Input
Amino acid sequence: MIKAVFFFCSGWLFSATKLVNPFFALLDPEVAHRLAVSAAARGWVPREKRPDPSILELEVWGRKFSNPIGLAAGFDKNAEAVEGLLGLGYGFVEVGSVTPVPQEGNPKPRIFRLREERAIINRCGFNSEGIQAVAKRLGAQHGKRKLDESSSTSPTANDGGKPGGKAGPGILGVNLGKNKTSEDAANDYVQGVHTLSQYADYLVINVSSPNTPGLRQLQGRKQLKDLVKKVQAARDEMQWGDEGPPPLLVKIAPDLSKQDLEDIAAVALALQVDGLIISNTTISRPDSISQNPLSQEVGGLSGKPLFDLSTSVLKEMYNLTRGKIPLIGCGGVGSGEEAYKKIRAGATLVQLYTAFAYGGPALIPRIKAELAECLERDGYKSVHEAVGADCI
Output
């Protein structure tokens, strides 16, 4: 019932965006991505004004989410379109990865569509305008919001327990990366914390991209422990108001051994990491894409073929951390049913990206409606009740 009503009312603007998908599909993937970011930055995308189904509301890290569906890092790398993307109806949007110093990333072409498999291979390599450019954008947005609040008599996004964060309606995450030529990874992440944490509802240490040499080695037990301790210290030494510092998460790869996962879980529990994102793209090539000649391209694979692997790692990590750490499930989500499977496998929140690249804005209200229907079908009254239902 929820799905039927919500989807029917999802608005002709969302439905109309399906008409432009074939046009974007004809363009070079990176050109299409650039146009999509520009459109969202200029407000040339639909704006969701209907409330989310109440069954999707949840609280994590003391922050209220109107729904658990978020946009993963990699789409809005330079925080150009935060307002437009949150306006699409995401519960949260994660920008980045942001590097301290601007860098071009790897040579083009570096993004490849595997259309039949609903997948993408990318080897972008943290192309970023740098933390100063991102800080300028987020600072301007933050200032504009504060000005609007002070000149308005209406309640703010956080009053009365309404969902919202530092970016207004919706929660904003900032994903931090390191520069390719940097010899001090910890210092790169610390710079990101010092410059950007004041604008973030949560921060992410990305140590899992396969496209920056040596980055994934930071997932080792000793390396990760040393890195997290330094970044936590940098965050905690800053001055914070009553709301306290932003939660600090770590984003990990799906291409890890059982011992690797046990080490990461041990570090996360010992240092009280606020959350883990599971997972980034994979360097593996599942049998489902083996016949596609583009599968041989170097880079990280995302989209539908990643779903089973990333969900398996998610479930394992939920068990290893004994459900004590909030997990964000990412990898291959393209429907409400798949988001629901992530939640049952241990995810409190769910992110997508590749499915959005293929489906456009119309995908978002559909996923939320389907997820609400799944929860209602199985007798759950909230997302939290379903988290880890398939785990031991």
Summary: The chain has one domain: 1-386. Residues 1-386 form a domain with the TIM Barrel fold (CATH 3.20.20.70). Confidence is low (pLDDT under 50) at residues 3-10, 154-160. The CA atoms of residues 23 and 363 lie 17 Å apart.
